[in-house]
Amino acid sequence: xxxxxxxxxxxxxxxxxxxxxxxxxxxxxxxxxxxxxxxxxxxxxxxxxxxxxxxxxxxxxxxxxxxxxxxxxxxxxxxxxxxxxxxxxxxxxxxxxxxxxxxxxxxxxxxxxxxxxxxxxxxxxxxxxxxxxxxxxxxxxxxxx
Length: 145
What we know:
Elements: H1 2-8, H2 33-40, E1 42-44, E2 81-83, H3 97-105, E3 109-110, E4 123-127, E5 130-135, H4 138-144
Antiparallel strand pairs: 1-2, 3-5, 4-5
Protein backbone atom coordinates (compact mmCIF):
# COMPACT_ATOMS: atom_id res chain seq x y z
CA UNK A 1 0.00 0.00 0.00
CA UNK A 2 1.97 2.95 1.35
CA UNK A 3 5.42 1.60 0.36
CA UNK A 4 4.21 0.95 -3.19
CA UNK A 5 2.72 4.46 -3.48
CA UNK A 6 5.88 6.15 -2.19
CA UNK A 7 8.13 4.03 -4.43
CA UNK A 8 6.19 4.49 -7.68
CA UNK A 9 4.44 7.82 -7.16
CA UNK A 10 1.11 6.26 -8.13
CA UNK A 11 -1.52 6.83 -5.44
CA UNK A 12 -4.83 5.03 -5.41
CA UNK A 13 -6.00 1.46 -5.94
CA UNK A 14 -3.28 -0.64 -7.61
CA UNK A 15 -5.82 -2.71 -9.52
CA UNK A 16 -7.66 0.32 -10.95
CA UNK A 17 -4.92 2.20 -12.77
CA UNK A 18 -7.41 4.67 -14.29
CA UNK A 19 -8.41 6.09 -10.90
CA UNK A 20 -4.84 6.31 -9.56
CA UNK A 21 -3.08 9.67 -9.33
CA UNK A 22 0.38 9.59 -10.93
CA UNK A 23 3.37 11.68 -9.91
CA UNK A 24 2.18 12.51 -6.38
CA UNK A 25 5.50 11.57 -4.78
CA UNK A 26 8.99 12.00 -6.23
CA UNK A 27 12.47 10.81 -5.35
CA UNK A 28 14.42 13.72 -3.86
CA UNK A 29 17.26 14.87 -6.12
CA UNK A 30 20.50 14.65 -4.09
CA UNK A 31 23.16 15.21 -6.78
CA UNK A 32 24.45 18.40 -5.17
CA UNK A 33 23.33 20.60 -2.29
CA UNK A 34 22.11 23.26 -4.74
CA UNK A 35 20.07 20.73 -6.74
CA UNK A 36 18.49 19.44 -3.51
CA UNK A 37 17.45 22.97 -2.49
CA UNK A 38 16.10 23.64 -5.97
CA UNK A 39 14.07 20.42 -5.89
CA UNK A 40 12.60 21.24 -2.48
CA UNK A 41 11.58 24.74 -3.61
CA UNK A 42 9.80 23.60 -6.78
CA UNK A 43 6.11 24.22 -7.47
CA UNK A 44 4.05 22.34 -10.02
CA UNK A 45 0.97 23.64 -11.85
CA UNK A 46 -1.44 20.71 -12.34
CA UNK A 47 -2.21 21.33 -16.02
CA UNK A 48 -1.67 18.93 -18.92
CA UNK A 49 1.84 19.24 -20.34
CA UNK A 50 0.69 18.87 -23.94
CA UNK A 51 -1.68 21.87 -23.83
CA UNK A 52 -0.74 24.98 -25.74
CA UNK A 53 -2.37 27.43 -23.32
CA UNK A 54 0.03 30.26 -22.53
CA UNK A 55 -1.76 31.69 -19.46
CA UNK A 56 -0.83 28.91 -16.96
CA UNK A 57 2.81 29.12 -18.10
CA UNK A 58 3.14 32.86 -17.46
CA UNK A 59 3.98 34.47 -14.14
CA UNK A 60 1.10 36.22 -12.42
CA UNK A 61 1.62 39.69 -10.93
CA UNK A 62 1.11 38.25 -7.43
CA UNK A 63 4.21 36.05 -7.96
CA UNK A 64 6.50 39.12 -7.74
CA UNK A 65 9.37 38.34 -5.36
CA UNK A 66 8.05 34.85 -4.63
CA UNK A 67 8.61 32.91 -7.86
CA UNK A 68 11.85 33.04 -9.84
CA UNK A 69 11.15 34.40 -13.35
CA UNK A 70 14.15 32.60 -14.89
CA UNK A 71 14.39 29.15 -13.29
CA UNK A 72 12.05 26.81 -15.16
CA UNK A 73 12.77 23.68 -17.21
CA UNK A 74 12.85 23.64 -20.99
CA UNK A 75 10.42 21.63 -23.06
CA UNK A 76 6.81 20.69 -22.27
CA UNK A 77 7.05 21.60 -18.57
CA UNK A 78 8.33 25.12 -19.32
CA UNK A 79 6.43 27.57 -17.13
CA UNK A 80 4.34 24.86 -15.50
CA UNK A 81 7.13 23.92 -13.10
CA UNK A 82 8.24 27.02 -11.22
CA UNK A 83 10.74 27.58 -8.40
CA UNK A 84 10.57 29.83 -5.37
CA UNK A 85 12.87 32.82 -5.68
CA UNK A 86 16.20 33.00 -3.89
CA UNK A 87 15.08 35.17 -0.96
CA UNK A 88 11.56 33.73 -0.66
CA UNK A 89 10.83 32.29 2.77
CA UNK A 90 7.74 30.23 3.58
CA UNK A 91 6.73 30.32 7.23
CA UNK A 92 4.18 28.37 9.22
CA UNK A 93 1.03 30.33 9.96
CA UNK A 94 0.48 31.61 13.47
CA UNK A 95 -2.28 33.30 15.42
CA UNK A 96 -2.33 37.07 14.95
CA UNK A 97 -4.31 37.90 18.10
CA UNK A 98 -1.27 38.22 20.48
CA UNK A 99 0.37 40.92 18.32
CA UNK A 100 -2.98 42.69 17.82
CA UNK A 101 -3.55 42.69 21.61
CA UNK A 102 0.00 43.97 22.15
CA UNK A 103 -0.54 46.87 19.74
CA UNK A 104 -4.01 47.62 21.15
CA UNK A 105 -2.42 48.09 24.58
CA UNK A 106 -0.09 50.63 22.94
CA UNK A 107 -2.88 52.93 21.68
CA UNK A 108 -3.72 51.22 18.39
CA UNK A 109 -7.37 51.79 17.52
CA UNK A 110 -9.13 48.69 16.19
CA UNK A 111 -10.76 49.10 12.81
CA UNK A 112 -14.26 48.63 14.26
CA UNK A 113 -13.73 51.58 16.65
CA UNK A 114 -12.04 53.92 14.14
CA UNK A 115 -13.78 57.11 13.02
CA UNK A 116 -12.02 58.67 10.03
CA UNK A 117 -13.53 62.10 10.66
CA UNK A 118 -12.11 62.17 14.19
CA UNK A 119 -8.54 61.15 13.25
CA UNK A 120 -7.97 61.48 9.46
CA UNK A 121 -4.15 61.41 9.64
CA UNK A 122 -3.89 58.05 11.41
CA UNK A 123 -1.61 55.41 9.88
CA UNK A 124 -3.10 52.07 8.84
CA UNK A 125 -1.78 49.00 10.68
CA UNK A 126 -1.66 45.69 8.80
CA UNK A 127 -0.97 42.26 10.33
CA UNK A 128 -0.30 39.46 7.83
CA UNK A 129 -1.80 41.58 5.05
CA UNK A 130 -5.06 42.27 6.93
CA UNK A 131 -5.99 45.81 7.97
CA UNK A 132 -6.61 45.51 11.72
CA UNK A 133 -6.48 49.11 12.95
CA UNK A 134 -4.88 52.54 12.91
CA UNK A 135 -2.35 54.38 15.06
CA UNK A 136 -1.82 58.12 15.46
CA UNK A 137 1.96 57.79 16.04
CA UNK A 138 3.23 55.10 13.69
CA UNK A 139 6.92 55.75 14.40
CA UNK A 140 6.40 55.10 18.11
CA UNK A 141 4.50 51.87 17.39
CA UNK A 142 7.23 50.63 15.03
CA UNK A 143 9.89 51.37 17.65
CA UNK A 144 7.98 49.46 20.35
CA UNK A 145 7.17 46.48 18.15
